[in-house]
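Q: What changes when glutamic acid is included in the input?
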Amino acid sequence: MNLLTRMFFISFSLLSVLPSYAEEGMWLPNLIGETRLQEMRKNGLRLKAEDLYATEKASLKDAIVHLGGCTGEIISDKGLFLTNHHCGYGQIQSHSSVEHDYLTHGFWAMNQGEELPCPGYKASFLIRMEEVTDQMDMESLADKSPQERDSLIADRKQKIIQKAVEGQPRGYRASVEGLYYGNQYFLFVYQTYTDIRLVAAPPSSIGKFGGDTDNWMWPRHTGDFCIFRIYADKDNAPADYSPDNVPYVPKRSLVISTQGIKKNDFTFIYGYPGRTNEYLVSDAVRYISEKGNPHKIALRTQRLEVMNRYQSEDPAVRIQYASKNASVANAWKKWQGESKGIVRMKVIDNKQTLENQFIRWASDKPQYKELIPQFRNLYARLEPYAFAADYYNEAFRAIELFQYAGRYARISKEELSKLEKESDGYFKNYYMPIDREIAKRMLRAYVEKVPKKFQPALLKQHASRIEEWVDEIFEGSVFTSSDRLKTFLAEHQEQPLSLLRKDPAIQIFQSFNDMYRQCIADSLKKLNTEINQRYTAYMKGLMEMQPEKLFYPDANSTLRIAYGKIEGFKPADGVVYHFQSTLDGVMEKDNPDIYDYDVPEKLRELYETKDYGRWCVNGSVPVAFLASNHTTGGNSGSPVLNRKGELLGINFDRCWESTMSDIVYDKDMCRNIAVDIRYVLFILDKYAGAGYLLDEMKLN
Ligand code: ARG
Ligand code: GLU
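A: The predicted holo structure follows.
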């Protein structure tokens, strides 16, 4: 090695232990320590720690709501909150009918009386979070068996939770979550509101513009937003729907910035990212990118091929399968980007380098020294189970008939009548020929790819004639149409349940589930428990080995702050992505013949007449933008905020080239996508004529 290459190597390996890049990381708001805050302020933040998170007074955290898998933000003192159209989709759909098709035409309440209650929909505020590692007293569990450990951990969590919610106001709930693989534990106390009403939703041709064609991609032109309002009782406390409830008065609502964005402006995101795995060892990443993802992608490619073919032949089927197709396509596309990114970033090699460094460093440390070989051994043992579980989930569970029949497998008579009532809703979006063809393909793949010991007996018996067998099942089952099911139940009122259990679809459901329970579940759980224990030690070791590095905990659906800046990127040689898209781009894509790109007439008119009002910027209207905030699924609906904590936009996606950021972050490629708040205001004001809502907001 000559001097120059040696110097290169030295500086390269130094780089890998320097503090994380500015844009990387999802930080716990109450732990934004001095270093982190200084770094954020150096990049432009103008707020203090207590403006971000405080418990004694109102802070930004009080404007953030958790909506299950999504995030929302409060934008008025009357409980109005924003989230994504794709987050509110289920609520919008459930209020839609042929007469009132809000998915197609949009919904705009013109006064509070017109808002639509959404039973079952909930919004939670984080009241406080605090570290409870000491109370969990993990050291005392060191010599316990994995089972004892698990149950003691569960007990201790439960005690802490009970104490936290005892005597608290209505709607309080709490959870204890491990961070850094259980090296730290935190208590999270929430208050949950349950009277939520739909206020506004654009038509899908705005809120889902670009559909799955543009999903995970830039340039993007989607107005992916909708608006709800939280209602409370007269004391501002949570209460289920009542006409007497009044708009909730929040502790804090966001100021909306209409000033616009420039390249390199500081931004941060407050929200509930779901799950990341930044500290996986190379064996785990290898499984994901070389085995898990390719197989799961191939299975979904087949399903999508079948759905797309039937959907393109019949408009009614296209609508029936729109939402199912979208959710299959969403992860399918994401995994492809993720696998590509893992290869491009040489993640497996880099992880191995780190692991070799760890082995050398740990050679005189008994508590760490065996970890890497143990991981290797455990992952090798895990692989067959993980692989079988992937096929169980992606192939077997992709068959709607079996999943639906499974609901009837172990029920009482009362539950039966409930299911019967709900069956119309299920069959409304069921098209048997699609399901039957998918069943043939999925079971064929299962037989060919999964070792015999993970195949249920019924499947093995029919392995040589899967296609005929599937036809027989579909002919013999009563769960393939609403008529068949209803006729059967009407004819067998005496003993419907015992007869139903003989249905071939239920029998296959049972045989797969028995196999899963007997041959996969236990080993999977046991091995994962052992692996996670190693991660607890490995994480601790990594932190000791790289004391100057700032580690952030993996996302786990708890409140986080990520920060970065407004910036585009270069996705490929010769291609540069600008950070902003505009209404001109919506019109460039406009095509009445392509469902995903059919711009609504009213928006075309606004464009023709350039009737943009105060939302005009350089002759157009801003629509979406890119920023380098580290996000993941669950961050949908999260506010993208400027240096003063004012709302710039609503996060709704990541770029395809970024999706490996759940495993490794690349500051040159990882970009989140947000709808520009000015587009939201333009649509409300000029498109919907719901400008009255703007009067409630604080615009700057
Ligand atoms: N990719 C985004 C997410 O992971 C948006 C999904 C909804 N939009 C769609 N076109 N399917 O959730
Ligand atoms: N659309 C995603 C969501 O629903 C966000 C995209 C991502 O994974 O970053 O949370």
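Observations recorded in class: The longest strand covers residues 184-193.
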